[in-house]
């Protein structure tokens, strides 16, 4: 197989703020794998929170060609070879997506069919980024009516997080979930989660910093289910997560791709954990890979491409609030041809 890659910049429709940063543009890396007259595509969405950048992903990909071999269907062997190289999970996820895209095209099957899965999963939430309570309520009120769930970014460290949720709840009856991105302390989390139960929030994502020793106590005392994101990357993290939470957030850019995500979903079920599928700020190419396994999950947060000013990889159908993967072979997305004007 021939491997090539290039860096691209995605522009957001508006600045996106979470507890630790505000983002206006993101750099991703697009991967191409060629074999037997077909091309498989994948996207790396590296996150500096995990010490990964587009430059580090590209450096990894520069050295990855010899690990792939000639058989795109040798997914397990390839994944073992990639795992021997530490880190750079976003780059590995891009290779995994490109391999699945290539295999689907060679077999003339959509990836979700190749995996034996259902096409549709739960409806995706739409993310309301962190801001003042009134501002978040205004933006929540303006969310397209196609969306059936809202995810609120919290972690303002100003004592107003519950007020943010209360303000949004005053303008919508949609199901709400919140994501704190590691910015509460233990006692604050216990108190806030209790208040959020009264506001009809369904679950709280990553309230404490990853690895916080108070996680087990919060799990015991929390009035709502706790889901872990920054604490949960790969299959090896699940045992510890089961001691600290009620569910996990699987992201392909953290796990290394579709193959690991399927394993994680199955293992989470065996541990009695709920399963959420999340994403980074990604184009339709990255979202298409995640959408292939959405049917394995209880909750889905795949709105990354919907937050962009313009998605350069259309093909994922947003239908009735659900991000539906294509029925076309592979991942089913194609890069848009730029307008020459």
Structure characterization notes:
The protein has two domains: 2-108, Enolase-like, domain 1 (2-Layer Sandwich), CATH 3.30.390; 126-324, Enolase-like C-terminal domain (TIM Barrel), CATH 3.20.20. β6 (176-179), α7 and β7 form a beta-alpha-beta unit. The protein contains twelve helices and 13 strands. It is globular, with a radius of gyration of 19 Å. The strands form three sheets. The chain has an eight-stranded parallel beta sheet with strand order 4-5-6-7-8-9-10-11. A three-stranded antiparallel beta sheet has the order 1-2-3, sandwiched between helices. The protein is an alpha/beta fold. The chain has helices at 54-62, 75-83, 89-107, 111-114, 133-141, 161-169, 186-198, 215-221, 238-244, 252-255, 258-270, 284-291; strands at 2-18, 21-35, 38-44, 126-128, 150-153, 176-179, 201-205, 226-228, 247-250, 274-277, 299-300, 317-319, 322-324.
Q: What is the fold-level CATH name, i.e. the topology of the largest domain?
A: TIM Barrel
Structural class: alpha/beta
Give the count of helical stretches.
12
> Taking strands numbered 1, 2, ... along the chain, how are they ordered across the largest sheet?
4-5-6-7-8-9-10-11
Low-confidence blocks of residues: none
Q: What summary fits the major beta sheet?
A: 8 strands, parallel
Q: Please tell me how large the radius of gyration is.
A: 19 Å
CATH architectural arrangement of the largest domain? Alpha-Beta Barrel
């Amino acid at each position: 197989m021939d491997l090539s890659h290039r860096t691209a910049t995605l522009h957001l429709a508006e600045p996106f703020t979470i507890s630790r940063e505000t983002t206006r543009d993101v750099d991703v890396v697009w991967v191409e794998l060629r074999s037997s007259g077909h091309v498989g595509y994948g996207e790396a969405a590296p996150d500096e929170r995990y010490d990964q950048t587009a430059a580090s992903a590209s450096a990894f990909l520069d050295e990855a060609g010899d690990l792939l071999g000639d058989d795109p269907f040798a997914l397990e062997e390839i994944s073992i070879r990639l795992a021997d190289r530490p880190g750079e999970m976003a780059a590995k996820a891009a290779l995994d997506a490109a391999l699945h895209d290539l295999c689907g095209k060679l077999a003339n099957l959509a990836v979700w069919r190749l995996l034996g899965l259902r096409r549709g999963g739960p409806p995706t939430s739409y993310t309301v980024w962190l801001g003042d309570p009134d501002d978040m309520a205004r933006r929540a009120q303006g969310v397209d009516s196609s969306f059936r769930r809202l995810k609120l970014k919290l972690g303002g460290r100003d004592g107003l997080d519950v007020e943010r949720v209360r303000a949004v709840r005053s303008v919508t009856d949609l199901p709400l979930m919140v994501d704190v991105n590691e910015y509460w302390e233990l006692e604050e989390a216990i108190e806030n989660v209790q208040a959020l139960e009264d506001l009809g929030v369904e679950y709280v994502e990553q309230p404490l910093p990853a690895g916080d020793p108070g996680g087990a106590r919060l799990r015991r005392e929390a009035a709502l289910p706790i889901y872990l994101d920054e604490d949960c990357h790969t299959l090896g993290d699940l045992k510890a997560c089961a001691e600290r939470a009620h569910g996990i957030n699987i992201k392909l850019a953290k796990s290394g791709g579709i193959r690991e995500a399927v394993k994680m979903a199955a293992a989470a079920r065996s541990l009695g954990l709920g399963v959420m599928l999340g994403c980074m700020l990604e184009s339709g190419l990255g979202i298409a890979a995640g959408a292939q396994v959405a049917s394995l999950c209880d909750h889905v947060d795949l709105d990354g491409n919907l937050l962009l000013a313009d998605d350069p990889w259309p093909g994922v159908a947003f239908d009735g609030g659900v991000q539906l993967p294509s029925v076309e072979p592979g991942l089913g997305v194609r890069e848009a041809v730029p307008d020459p004007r």
